[in-house]
């Protein structure tokens, strides 16, 4: 059995999804579900924002290191 078969084996069908939704509805109640979804959405948004900030910081560090390398190469050429 390939990887695709294993993944399909663990995917819940419509009936399982309905049962999961009903269990969540019973556990948390109709009023709490929107609050939970809002908190989850806020967490995902903050995570994506942090990832973008980190990538921007890394790219800016790469840019400054590239500038320093080119300055060093220019200085070494001038001395020769």
Structural notes for this entry:
This protein is mostly helical and 80 residues long. Helix content is 89%, strand content 0%. It has three helices and no strands. The longest helix is centred in the C-terminal third of the chain and has 48 residues. It is elongated and about 75 Å long.
Features:
elongated; single chain; 2 domains; 80 residues; mainly alpha; 3 helices
Concise account of the structure shown:
The protein has 80 residues and is mainly α. It is 89% helix and 0% strand.
SSE layout and pairings?
Blueprint: H1 3-10, H2 14-28, H3 32-79
Number of helices: 3
SSE pattern, N- to C-terminal: HHH
* Average pLDDT level: 82
Tertiary shape: elongated
Model regions low in confidence, pLDDT < 50 over at least 5 residues: none
Structural domains: how many: 2
Class by alpha and beta content: mainly alpha
Share in β-strands: under 5%
**How many β-strand runs?**
0
Distance between the termini: 65 Å
What's the Cα radius of gyration? Answer: 26 Å
Task: Report the helical percentage.
Answer: over 70%
């Amino acid at each position: 059995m390939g990887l695709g078969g294993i993944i399909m084996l663990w995917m819940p069908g419509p009936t399982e999804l309905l049962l999961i939704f009903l269990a969540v509805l019973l556990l948390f109640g109709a009023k709490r579900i929107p609050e939970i979804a809002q908190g989850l959405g806020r967490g995902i948004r903050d995570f994506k924002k942090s990832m973008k900030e980190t990538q921007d910081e890394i790219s800016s560090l790469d840019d400054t290191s590239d500038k320093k390398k080119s300055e060093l190469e220019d200085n070494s050429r001038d001395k020769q």
